[in-house]
Amino acid sequence: MFDKLLSLLRARPRVRGGWYYLGNGVGLALTHFGRKIFLPASDDGMTPDIILRGQWEPHVEAVLRRYLKPGMRVAEVGANIGFHTLVMAEAVGPTGHIDTFEPYPKVLPLLRRTLAANQFHRRVTLHEVAILDQAGEVRFAADPTQAGSAHLAIPVAAANYTEGFATPALRLDDALADLPALDLLRMDVEGTEGLALRGATALIARSPRLVVVMEWSPIMLAPRGDVAELSAWITGLGFRARRIERNGQLTPVSPSALSELDHCDLVLERNAS
Question: Is 52 helix (H, G, I), strand (E, B) or coil?
Fold first, then answer.
């Protein structure tokens, strides 16, 4: 409640283009709910939206705020610059906690500064690793003009993915082995969502109320595994899928239709009505 009050007090009409360039390719802006966020000035994806509207993926934000309650335990696979990290940290409050995972060296300094500037260091633990289905060192690729593009390198990567870096990888089961249960898992990792889920089977099994909010793109998933098989495996775990529409509403998706969907965001939930 206190966090919600602070958010309301911070909220005020935004000035279009209202941001501050700090030098060295870094800017500072306010989210529409009044939180400070550090941005890469060279990014053509998220940065313009956050500068102009203080928002990023408002349909996903609406769903996260709908599901999250104070005190919940959350894992985030693919924090990037931290917009949804801020949303979730505010929603779970000081009694909740988020373990967030991000390996991209280009955005990590910005993410650290954003968490510190909003005094979320106690309720958010940042893990500077990738989450996959097995541990080890892996190679990632990224488009330098898109801060949200970093992904597990594959032979068919487009020519614009000119940045590359090595990163340690963990399974979520190992990273969160001591966590009794998880309330919500948010994932946006450019096609490795299925691998991340495969590495979290024990955590999923001991989290009966788990809700998964994830990007779902069969085109990006396919180079990393059989999408129909992944869809059947998810269904076999008892999850039912609903697509997040642009207005934040949820539309049921049949198991057979999952592998045929266009790029979208999903909610996976057991016993979803």
Answer: helix
Determine the Cα–Cα distance for residues 105 and 108; give it in Å rounded to an integer. Answer: 5
* Residue 132, token pair as written in the block: 């996959």
- pLDDT for res 156: 66
Distance, in Å, from the CA atom of 145 to the CA atom of 75, rounded to the nearest integer, reads: 27
Q: For residues 126 and 147, what is the distance between their CA atoms, to the nearest angstrom? A: 18
* 3 state DSSP class of 253: strand
What CA–CA distances, in Å, run from 137 to 58, 156, 166? Answer: 34, 20, 7
H helix or E strand, kind and range, residue 35: none
List the chain residues with pLDDT less than 50. Answer: 1-2, 4-6, 8-17, 273
Strand pairing class (26-30; 97-101): unpaired
Quick one: DSSP state of residue 41? T
Torsion sign over Cα 150, 26, 15, 54 = positive
pLDDT of residue 3: 54
Tokens linked to 247: 């207005």
Torsion of CA 247, 251, 256, 259, to 10 degrees: 10
Check: CB of residue 27 under 8 Å from CB of residue 38.
yes
